[in-house]
Design a protein that fits this description.
- This protein has 411 residues and is α+β, with helices and mostly antiparallel strands.
- The chain folds into three domains: 247 residues, FAD/NAD(P)-binding domain (3-Layer(bba) Sandwich); 71 residues, Beta Barrel (Elongation Factor Tu (Ef-tu), domain 3), CATH 2.40.30; 66 residues, rRNA adenine dimethylase, C-terminal domain (Helicase, Ruva Protein, domain 3, Orthogonal Bundle), CATH 1.10.8.100.
- The protein contains 13 helices and 21 strands.
- The strands form six sheets. It has a six-stranded antiparallel barrel. It has a five-stranded parallel β-sheet with strand order 7-2-1-11-20, covered by helices on one side. It has a three-stranded antiparallel β-sheet with strand order 3-6-5.
- α1 packs parallel to α6 and α11 crosses α12.
- The longest helix is centred in the last third of the chain and has 18 residues.
- The chain is elongated, with a radius of gyration of 25 Å.
């Protein structure tokens, strides 16, 4: 019977443990925290967006880095098979807007409960509060692990599922990168990804808490458009966040040293001419009012003072006295509200880590290292990342599943 040691009790580690145990392995899982799934607990704002109910091609399309590496993983465990897996171990699920899959209870804790219960049912031995210090290897063969307290565990296979660097408070502090580097693996440079942005302009901070829906954003480096999309964003005390911004942050990484500019189209459904006509209608409606009282039909109340200030039009000016030139300046401002990005927030707020262990050194069919026999890497520790919507968790579960199958084949 193969003795399998799994380092990390997140989604990839728990999945690997369950599948390895189902395939007859004696499995020990080592979790540095007092419980499994600490990061999983906070995903999807505590609701846990398990996956996205789409085709394999749909999954691959949302993986930005090394998506071809995941062909075997996704075809072995696609999103529908993952849903079936959870339903079969007692978790009822539902599909929401954008094909996002959640537990029907809206509680990430229920996801963790069924995974832990299944591990215990299968006889997986879970070692809590057990941080692994190093991985033992002799002549490129895995021999086991050593804990921080110098306790040693021998094993035939070791699966590293330690996550990346995002949300370090949950235990993701880059231990897997250290293990990999010590065993002669290449680590691609890491960055926080899927993360809010800090903005230079002070007026942005004045809009803290304001959510804008149905806007279009563009992020530019000089004349090059780095990212553009339509959707929802949020102003914060340091800058901007929300779904649009979080996704944009991933595409900014190659341009982080550039001066990046964010422009917001507040009325993307209206051309410049149509927006001008719309403003004329509102100005006719409020022709006896001051400018500051004539924008309520067009903009959120919190945004109006900022737009007035940036337009340069006197807020007390009567609407019927506003010139065509001033009005066109207002139109262009609403179509191109511009601010300057100073930096992304750090790993504490990043949903995932960009970068990680070079996938060319890993067998994509088994997740086994090509350099060390019996050593496997799964989940966020690898140089794989996807957009939001359940895709990153699908990567974790699918790669964990493959590794679990692979170590079980030796029995």
């Amino acid at each position: 019977m193969e003795k399998v040691l799994i380092v990390g009790g997140g989604p990839a580690g728990m999945m690997a443990a369950i599948i390895a145990a189902r395939n007859g392995c004696k499995v020990h899982l080592f979790e540095r925290n007092e419980k499994c799934g600490k990061k999983l607990y906070i995903t999807g704002k505590g609701r846990c967006n398990l996956t996205n109910a789409t085709s394999v091609e749909g999954l691959l399309d949302k993986v930005i880095t090394n998506n071809k590496f995941l062909y075997s993983a996704f075809y072995t465990l696609d999103s529908y098979l993952l849903i079936d897996f959870f339903e079969n171990i007692g978790l009822r699920t539902k599909i929401e807007r954008g094909n996002r899959v959640f537990p029907i209870s809206d509680k990430s804790s229920d996801v963790i409960k069924v995974l832990v219960k299944e591990m215990e049912k299968l006889g997986v031995i879970i070692h809590y509060n057990s941080r692994v210090k190093s991985v033992k290897e002799v002549n490129k063969e895995i021999k086991g692990i050593i804990l921080e307290n110098n306790t040693q565990f021998d094993g035939d296979k070791v699966i590293i599922a330690t996550g990346g660097l995002s949300y370090a408070s949950t235990g993701s502090t880059g231990d897997g990168y250290k293990f990999a580097k010590n065993l002669n693996h290449t680590i691609e440079e890491t960055h926080p990804s899927l993360v809010p942005l800090e903005i230079k302009e002070q007026w942005v901070k004045e809009l803290q808490g304001l959510s804008l829906k149905n806007v279009e954003i563009k992020i530019k480096s000089g004349d090059k458009t780095v990212y553009s999309d339509f959707g929802e964003m949020l102003f914060t005390h340091f800058g901007v966040s929300g779904p649009l911004i979080i996704s944009a942050s991933r595409f900014m990484i190659p341009y982080k040293k550039d001066k990046l500019v964010l422009s917001i189209d507040l009325k993307p459904s209206l051309s410049i001419d149509k927006l001008d006509s719309r403003i004329l209608i509102d100005f006719e409606k409020y022709n006896r009012k001051q400018f500051k009282n004539a924008l309520d039909d067009l903009l959120p109340r919190k945004l109006i003072p900022i737009i007035i200030k940036l337009s340069g039009i006197n807020e007390d000016k009567k609407v019927d006295q506003i010139s065509k030139q001033e009005r066109l300046k207002l139109v262009n401002l609403m179509k191109n509200l511009t601010c300057h990005i100073t930096k992304t927030r750090d790993y504490k707020e990043a949903i995932i880590t960009y970068g990680g262990i070079n996938t060319k050194e890993i067998n994509p069919v088994t997740m086994e290292s090509k350099k060390i026999n019996g050593l496997y890497f799964v989940g966020e520790v690898l140089d794989l990342d996807a957009l939001t919507g359940g895709y990153n968790l699908q990567i974790a579960f699918s790669t964990g599943y493959l590794a679990g199958l692979a170590v079980g084949e030796a029995n």
